[in-house]
Amino acid sequence: MNRLQALTLLLLCFFAQGAQAQVTGGQFAMEYLRLPNAPRISALGGISIANPDDDISFAMQNPALIRPALHTDLGLSYNNFYSGISIANLQYAHHVSNINTSFALGVQYLNYGSFTATDPIGNQYGTFRANDFALTLGAGRQYQKHWRYGAAIKFAHSSLFDKSATAFLADVGVNYYDTATLWDIGVVAKNMGFMAKKYNPNNPAEPLPFDLQIGVSKRFAHIPLRLMANIHHLYEWDVRYSDPNDVGTITIFNVNDSVNATKTPSHFADKLFRHFIFGAELTLGKRVTLSAGYNHLRRGELVIKDKTGMAGFAFGVGVNLNKFQVQYARSYYHIAGAYNEFGLRMTLNQITGIGKFGKRVQWSETYPDWMYEGNQPAPAAN
Predict the structure, then answer these.
(1) Are the CB atoms for 272 and 53 separated by under 8 Å?
(2) What is the 8-class DSSP label of residue 349?
(3) Distance (Å, whole) CA 259 – CA 265
(4) Residue 313: left if φ>0, alpha if ψ -120 to 50, beta else—which one?
(5) What is the 3-state secondary structure (H, E, C) of 181-216?
(6) 50-88 as b/e, with b when 16 or more CB fall inside 10 Å?
(7) In the Cβ-directed half-sphere of 367, how many Cα atoms lie within 13 Å?
(8) Are strands 337-347 and 183-197 parallel, antiparallel or unpaired?
(9) What is the pLDDT of residues 97-148, one digit of tens each?
């Protein structure tokens, strides 16, 4: 079975699924695990599982992308989210040559701020704080020439007033990178797991935000441009909220896919594209990378019909300062405003050594990235 046949089969399985229309949010515990883990991911629409660039943030999206070239890479980001919520991410990769396996560690922390505790009639009883965090440990390995595979385990914890919950989850991913044509294909099953501690022990366990995703990207050999598409919620066809008062379709072009008001609109195009996230990156020289993304599900769920604004769009820029990369993203969820995210990426062994311990863990080692065929040059690092 070739790549085209495999992709076609996967998409046919996707379209064969039938489910009751519903919004995707508010159904699961630990929903914060769906949030982007870095500014560059945010700028590409929130998901990017098939990007072979040397950035630790992509490896946390798809554990199959954890590889030797990311050895000692460190990524830090801060997200000034809505309503005073702050989100911080830390990611680090390390290659162990003795077992030919690359590892990655990720930490995600959300601070929801301080709240006033009241009873049903409004009496105040001080304040309380709420927060969530997740720890991720992943590993990736090479298979033959073009394939990589990987897996990650997660420990997720949520603390909300007097309730808390804990979950154990796992991601499993596969990546195929054709170094001659610069096509990349990734498949990931995310957030498979169980609740180890429920918010309410008397209730059934809350469902977790499982997702099945496939991504495709293409970098052009003579143009510093990469185009990508990611498809999410592959296990469920209809993720559109069924509003009986809605006879139109909110799209990027505001096109109505139903012309007969006497019939129930099918919204086929809207249902289809709610599974897609489109992104593009343009590299200017060796210093600047411009990113843009469009998330149709985000736009469909959060846009206001009378004033659509930029909901669903995201933009970003990365600046390479030799030993550091500074990243910025601006994402539009709603007409109420966008949020900003800042990040810093560096390769630690290019900045400092760690003495005798560093020799034992091969701290100063550097590893080549993808093996390129023939005379095809490797794309410039972003």
Answers:
(1) no
(2) G
(3) 8
(4) beta
(5) CCEEEEEEEEEEEEEEECCCCCCCCCCCCCEEEEEE
(6) bbbbbbbbbbbbbbbbbbbbbbbbbbbbebebeeebebe
(7) 21
(8) unpaired
(9) 999 999 999 999 999 988 888 888 888 888 888 999 999 999 999 998 899 9
What is the secondary structure of 126-177 as a DSSP string? EEEEEEEEEEEEEEEEEETTTEEEEEEEEEEEEEETTEEEEEEEEEEEEEEE
CATH of 3-117+124-239+274-360, one of 3.90.550.10, 2.40.160.40, 3.40.50.1000, 2.40.30.20: 2.40.160.40
The terminus-to-terminus CA distance of the chain in angstroms comes to 34
Residues with pLDDT less than 50, the chain:
1, 4-21, 255, 258-261, 373-382
Q: How many helices (H) and strands (E) does the chain have?
A: 6, 14
Contact between 211 and 228 under an 8 Å Cβ cutoff? The reply is: no
Surface-to-core class of residue 372, CB atoms within 10 Å of its CB (0-12 exposed, 13-18 middle, 19+ buried): middle
- Count of C-beta atoms within a 10 Å radius of residue 210: 15
Neighbouring residues of 336: CB distance < 8 A, sequence distance ≥ 6: 82
Task: Report the run of H or E that residue 6 belongs to, with start and end.
Answer: helix 3-16
Integer Cα distance of 198 and 207 in angstroms: 10
pLDDT in tens, 313-353: 999 999 999 889 999 999 998 888 888 999 999 999 999 99
User: Which residues are 92's β-sheet partners?
Assistant: 74, 105
- Residue 211: strand pairing partners: 190
Q: CB under 8 Å to 81, separation ≥6 — which residues? A: 87, 110, 339
| Torsion angle (degrees, nearest 10) of CA 30, 32, 38, 43 | 130
The full set of domain ranges for the chain reads: 3-117+124-239+274-360
| Integer Cα distance of 344 and 66 in angstroms | 19
The CA-atom distances, in angstroms, between 41 and each of 37, 60, 168, 366 are 7, 10, 24, 25
Q: Closest Cα to residue 237, out of 10, 19, 6, 1? A: 19
Q: In sequence order, what are the residues at sequence separation of 6 or more whose Cβ sits closer than 8 angstroms to the Cβ of residue 74?
A: 56, 90, 91, 92, 345, 346, 347, 348
